[in-house]
Structure formats: C-alpha cells, structure tokens
Amino acid sequence: MTGHEHILTREFYIVESTLSLANVGRQTIVPLFSRLRTGRGQANPLAAYQELRKLGEVFPAPWGGYLVTSHRLCHQVLRDRSWRVPDLHWRLSQDDSARWSSPASRQMAASLPMLNPPDHTMTRKSLGNIFDRHSLAKLRPFIEETADRLTDRFFEEAREGSADFCSLVADELPVITIGQWMGLPEADYELLRTLTHDQVHTQELFPSRSQLALSDSATAQLRQYFTDVIRERRNSPGEDPISSWLRAWDGIEPDRSRADAAVHSLALFMILAALETTSHVLSASVRLLVDRPHEWEWLRRHPEDVAGAVEETLRYDAPIHMISRVASMDCEVAGVLVREGEMVQLMTGAAHHDPEQYADPHVFDIRRAQAHLSFGGGIHYCLGNALARLEATALLNSLLKRDARLSISAPPRWEPRIAFRRMTSMQLALD
Q1: Residue 362: phi, psi to the nearest 5?
Q2: Gyration radius from the chain CA atoms
Q3: Burial class (CB in 10 A: 0-12, 13-18, 19+), 392
Q4: Judging by DSSP bridges, how do beta strands 427-430 and 163-164 pair with one another?
C-alpha cells in the first residue's frame, strides 16, 4: 500500500467510525442529558454517567461536537496546549447567535477562563500570585472565624428543628470571604450572590431563552456594579485587589478605558468563580459526610484527614461536571477525527467515576489520596483552588469540633443544570 493509499484508508476508517458512533443518536444520549437536567437527575447523576461511559471514551454529540467520558482523555485534553477555550472569536463564528452572542456570553468570553494566549498570558500575569501561601495565611483567621460564626447560627436554628445548611452556611461563607478580600460592602453580598446564581445560566450546555434573558439581566447589573466599584477605586485607591489590578493594568495599557475594562472583567470573574463553585464544595462535603456517619466520626477522631475528605469530595462530586474545549487544528482523539473549530465536552463528572482510573469509583473514601480534574488543568488550572480548599477545610473543622450529630431531614433540592452543580436546599437536623 502506498503512503497516499494508507492515508486515504485511514481517513475512511476514521469517518466510518465516526458515522457509526453517530448512530448512537438521540434515542440514547438525549434522554440521558434530559435526565441530568432535572432535579432528580442532579440528585444522583452517577447512573447517567455510567450509561455515557458505556458509549465509549469519545463519541459525537447529537447537537454537534463530541463528548469525552474517560479520565485518561479528559486529562490529556486539559493539559494539551493545542486545545483552546471557546473564546469570543469562536463564539462569534457560531450559527447560534442567540446562544453565543448574547451579552452574558460575550461578557464570559472576556473573562480569564475563556481567554486563549496571548490574551490569557497577559491577563494572568497582571493578577500575580494572588492566593499564595502568604495571602492565604492572612485570610485564614477571618475565614475560620466566619465559619465558626455561621455554624453557630446554623446550630441555633437546628435546635429549634431542621435548618437549611445551604442558605445559612454554604451560600454565605464564599460571598463573605471574597467580598471581604475584594473590599466590597457587606450590604451588597446578598445582591452579588443572587446575580451570580442568575448569571451562570449562560455557562450551561442548553440554556433556554428565559434563562439567557435572566443571565443577560444579571450580567448587565453586575457590569454596572463593578463599573461603579472601579470608578470609586480610581478616585480612592487602596491596598485591595481591585486597586492593585488597576495599578498593574495602568502599567500595561496606556488607554485608561481599556485598562478599566480589563480590571472590570477580572473583578466580575472573581465573583462568578468564587461563589457558585465553592458553595457547592461546602454543601457537597457536608452532605456526603453526614450520609456516612462512620466517616464523620473518623474525622472527629482524626482531624488530620479533613484535607483528604475535601479532596475526595472534589473527586466524587465536583462543582463543575463538564468543561468545554475547542480543537485548534484537525486532530484525533482516541481514533476519532475532530476537525478544527469543533468543540469537545469533557464530562469530568463521568471521568471522576471512571473505573480505569479509580478503584471502586462510586465509593466515597476520604483516604483515597488520588488526583482529580475538579480544578481543570494546564494554563487554565483554577486560580482560586487553594482558597476553595481553605474554606472547605475551615468549615469542616468548625462542624467537627462540636459534639453534635447531624442527619438529612428532607431530600436536598438541586438546580436543574448539567455543567455547574448547585444544591439549593439541604435541611439538616440534630440527632
């Protein structure tokens, strides 16, 4: 066989394989995603993930692009710099303008996680190492004190009956922490929390028109909020992060309006990234441990294992279950041809339960000590990972030092999403 014939045969094999995979079709994949997009599906997504993994490591999605389910391939794509994030250029090239050209989508495209080099490189450099060991050491006393105060209030209400852990603790600690760090008024925390919950719809796989409208409205309000904050910091700069970013961007960008726009995107990104994801880590860790009293009691006797419990929570039920990447050139993923510009959806929620990577993946084991993909990988590895870990560790330590046993008194309620997990209510009672 000549080299040319070999290439043609190989191309034919890849196309034929892709077509046969496409035959999996809507009758299998769409119902699984429809199930995941319900409160019931979010309460226990593992069965749907198991069905997805049976379809293979990578296969076409009925709506376009490809789904990747194995840990091996998710890890490979996340760390490979040839893969891109869906930036503004990619979004504006798509046919679904209502989805990708909405104000909320365009705002997200300007944020750090949706920038590709060289824009990503410059923006990341302007931030510096904001959550280094020194910064976290300064934040730790405040976070621990806040966790104690919130859990005190939670136990006061729980003594009168069941209390909602999400609204009293898990939704509060992240916004108080990031708000204090950024120097934002405490009176604004409730507004920021609400707008963040509404804005995240644009980052979902299948946002409805009403959800996009809600996200656009929240984005407009957040844009105005941080425009006012930046104007205030321009007039009265301090030692807070926003003032620091303004000084950094003034040294990079001579056009003040462009510098302000860059800082605006950073500030808005910090709020969006810090609240939704960390809130889920807090509520998920408590839910998983309360459901397993033997693990809870083990941690009470072995507080040195709390960090391991946080890591296992991040593996078992990460805050983000789906990550998007775009091919920068024609390439193969496990023998499947992905064309330049096509998107792959990395189903990290499924990958975290891949039996090829984790022994007994459906077992929640706080002593597992294995790496996970919850903070992404490569140049887009989550900037706030250490802060989220610190908040979760502080909260669990605060709960464990109390001589009390908790139980879930009503089934938790979930936002009907696919990519971003959010528990909206978890009623806990004292045993």
Answers
A1: -85, 0
A2: 22
A3: buried
A4: antiparallel
3-state secondary structure of 406: strand
CB count, 10 Å around CB of 257? 8
Unique residue bearing structure tokens 């990447």: 325
Q: Which two tokens stand for residue 110?
A: 């300007």
Global confidence as pTM: 0.90
Which candidate, 8, 134, 49, places its Cα nearest to that of 345?
A: 49
Helix (H, G, I), strand (E, B) or coil at 249: helix
CA–CA separation, 412 and 198 (whole Å): 20
Which residue type, as a one-letter code, is found at position 357?
Answer: Q
Tell me if 392 sits within 8 A of 313, measured CB to CB.
Answer: yes
Which amino acid belongs to residue 402? Answer: R
Q: How many CB atoms lie within 10 A of CB 304?
A: 7
Q: Digits of tens for pLDDT over the chain (431 positions)?
A: 444 333 333 333 333 444 444 555 567 898 999 999 998 999 999 999 999 999 999 999 988 999 999 999 999 999 999 999 999 999 988 887 677 888 888 888 889 999 999 999 999 988 888 899 999 999 999 999 999 999 999 999 999 889 999 999 999 999 999 999 999 999 999 999 999 999 988 888 888 888 889 999 999 999 999 999 999 999 999 999 999 999 999 999 999 999 999 999 999 999 988 899 999 999 999 999 999 999 999 999 999 999 999 999 999 999 999 999 999 999 999 999 999 999 999 999 999 999 999 999 999 999 998 999 999 999 999 999 999 999 999 999 999 999 888 999 999 999 988 999 999 999 999 98
Place of tokens 């909320």: 104
DSSP state of 186: G
Is-contact 269 262, C-beta < 8 A? no
> Distance between CA atoms of 62 and 397, rounded to whole angstroms?
45
Other CB atoms within a 10 A radius of the CB of residue 194 amount to: 13
- Write out the two tokens for 141: 């006393």
Give ∠ CA 264-269-274 in degrees, rounded to 5. Answer: 140
